[in-house]
Design brief:
- 25% of the residues lie in helices and 35% in strands.
- By secondary structure, the chain is α+β, with helices and mostly antiparallel strands.
- The chain has one domain: ph1033 like fold (Roll), CATH 3.10.590.10.
- It binds a DNA duplex through loops.
- This is Ubiquinol-cytochrome c reductase.
- InterPro entries: 5hmC_binding, EVE_domain, PUA-like_sf, THYN1-like_EVE.
DNA sequence: GCCAACGTTGGC
DNA sequence: GCCAACGTTGGC
């Protein structure tokens, strides 16, 4: 199993909205970036991911699971763009802020820090475990 | 609201 | 195929 990070502006699609979708999950639509798309194509059902709120709050708020493999993005007719479905697994008891991440030497290599603009990114097993611990799990 | 970083587009 | 111009993202 691999680990990922999904970034969303809460004003556009928030963790609460994701939770409200329940176990069925929801398409992670709208990605129009090849790198991010390619990561989604690599995902498998059952892979886990962090749900990150960008812009206003800048923190990892929850954990999601890939519930459907890569398929065409239903919000466009452009065949280039695919997406996966994800469902909420659980909220982090204590959201982990970007500030905390930047202040943690072990997390200095996270894509979130090094390439802040990438909206779908891989997370290493070590990073995953540490962020979970920081988040109170 | 500003601006740096970065991806994409299009002229040559 | 290069590179300048432009648009978008996201941290601050």
């Amino acid at each position: 199993m691999r680990y990922w990070l999904f970034k969303s502006e809460p004003e556009t699609w928030s963790w609460d909205q994701q939770v409200a979708k329940g176990g069925a999950g929801e398409e992670w639509t709208g990605v129009r970036n090849y790198q991010a798309r390619n990561f989604m194509r690599e995902m498998e059902v059952g892979d886990r991911g962090f749900f990150y709120h960008s812009q206003s709050t800048r923190e990892i708020v929850g954990i999601v699971e890939v519930s459907a493999p890569s398929h065409p993005d239903s919000t466009t007719d452009d065949e280039r763009w695919d997406c996966v479905d994800i469902r909420a697994v659980q909220a982090l008891p204590a959201p982990v802020t970007l500030e905390q991440i930047k202040g943690t030497p072990e997390l200095a290599a996270m894509v979130l820090v090094k390439n802040s603009r990438l909206s779908v990114q891989p997370v290493t097993a070590e990073e995953w475990a540490l962020v979970c611990r920081m988040g109170g799990l």
